[in-house]
Amino acid sequence: MAISPRNNCHDPLSRRDFVKWSVAAGVGARAALPGATATATTTQASDALFAAPPLERVRIGFVGVGRMGTNHVRNLLRIEGAVITAVCDIVEEHTTRAQDLVEEAGQPRPTGYSRGEYDFKRMCASEDLDLVFTATPWEWHVPVCVAAMENGKHAATEVPAAITLEGCWQLVETAEKHQKHCIMMENCCYGRAEMTTLNMVRRGVLGALVHGSGGYMHDIRAIFAGEHPGREWFQAHALERDGSLYATHGLGPVAQYMDINRGDRFESLVSMSSPSLGMSAYIRDKFPEDDPRQHLQFASGDVNTTLIRTALGRTITVVYNGNSPRPYSRINMIQGTKGIIEGYPDRVYIDGVSPGHDWEPMDNYWDAYEPELWRVHGSEAAGYGHGGMDYLENLRLIHCLRQGKPLDMDVYDAAAWSAVFPLSEKSVANGGAVIEAPDFTKGRWNQRPSLDVPGGTHDQQDSPESIK
């Protein structure tokens, strides 16, 4: 693809020269970003973040082995050093299915727990575990994680980590008190485009960041209409709550680009919702007049837009839309002083490099900026959940625990990203009022080091062991 000059007063800058320049200048450019914390080495950066003693192997108790939980179990069984020693689910058939999968993979049959909703407490108290992983309905994430940490285990949870501000604080305070990891497994942070964008941001390609946008725009009307048995808990939130119901998928990657909790933080937000019309129309057209679902009244607006302001004055829009007919999108947009990257489709514009005012495909930048995690493990991750993201997030979790390294996301990220849901709900209920966001780091947000690209980048010449 030909590269045009920026304008008649500038010599054209070839992409090859641009890549060489940006990689060489990356550390300096990153240090120049507003609020960025310059660190000389990965080791120095890691010293300021919580890391637990390394584990030879990670003994896992899994709570909630339905559809998503079973996907995680399958992934973990393929990862060296991960051993599933207990499984818990209120549906005994789910527990048995997970036990069978573990045994078929060549590991000892794990202990099963199915004595009701709170049997995870018995598992946490009685099993020799290093990590408790939960993929339960949202309202159980905090109770499971707290029980794990109070019994000396690390905790990992599906998204969101909590659905109330009280729950967010409970996770932070429990993790700090017991000195245990509590990570929200936000798989979208491990997407190929998202990780490549993070690398480009870290190399200074986009300059200083000023605005980002993420979202969860997914036609899930069939779930809210009760057409998928077992997902009634999700429907209940749409019936009762109005806000950014599912924020972390789109928000997590943008928060990492902007070093939220590591040089910047969420300061306040405003949130507004459109009328709730989509689900009524869907049910009216889909089901007969005497179907009891015809009487459902959904509190959730069809489209919620939340605008976050950070301490450094940056802005982030978060869009939620689960009630409308539309293609899937997470937006994944980040704007800097030197360029912009946007998803769906993945595309790039770099000032002085991209031709004219035209987008370039992300394909032009994979060779230079695709992180090693995808270069080395992308092929083995394919076909294992959400384009490979699920497998890679599990791979990194087990690797960091075994190496005694800080995790890619920590309890402060889990709390800050999850808190957007209840904060947006409060803003909507108050006519779009400005709502202050809590500082879960308690003032340490501008001292904590920036997140390195998980697994490193090929220009850093990482060893194979450090790539995972």
Low-confidence segments, ≥5 residues, pLDDT <50? 1-14, 18-47, 461-467
Approximately what portion of the residues adopt beta-strand conformation?
Answer: 15-25%
The radius of gyration over CA amounts to 22 Å
Q: Please identify the structural class as seen in this structure.
A: alpha/beta
Arrangement of strands in the largest sheet: 14-13-12-11-7-10-9-8-15
The major beta sheet can be summarized as: 9 strands, mixed
What is the element layout, followed by pairings?
Elements: H1 15-32, H2 42-47, E1 58-63, H3 67-76, E2 82-88, H4 92-104, E3 111-113, H5 119-126, E4 131-134, H6 141-150, E5 154-157, H7 165-178, E6 182-184, H8 192-202, E7 209-217, H9 221-224, H10 232-240, H11 248-257, E8 266-273, H12 278-286, E9 304-310, E10 315-321, E11 333-336, E12 339-342, E13 347-350, E14 360-361, H13 366-369, H14 372-381, H15 389-403, H16 411-429, E15 435-436, H17 464-467
Parallel strand pairs: 1-2, 1-4, 2-3, 4-5, 5-6, 7-10
Antiparallel strand pairs: 7-11, 8-9, 8-15, 9-10, 11-12, 12-13, 13-14
Give an overview of the whole structure.
- With 468 residues, the chain is an alpha/beta fold.
- The chain is 37% helix and 16% strand.
- It contains 17 helices and 15 strands.
- The strands form 2 sheets. The protein has a 9-stranded mixed β-sheet. A 6-stranded parallel β-sheet has the order 3-2-1-4-5-6, sandwiched between helices.
- It is globular, with a radius of gyration of 22 Å.
- Residues 1-14, 18-47 and 461-467 have low confidence and may be disordered.
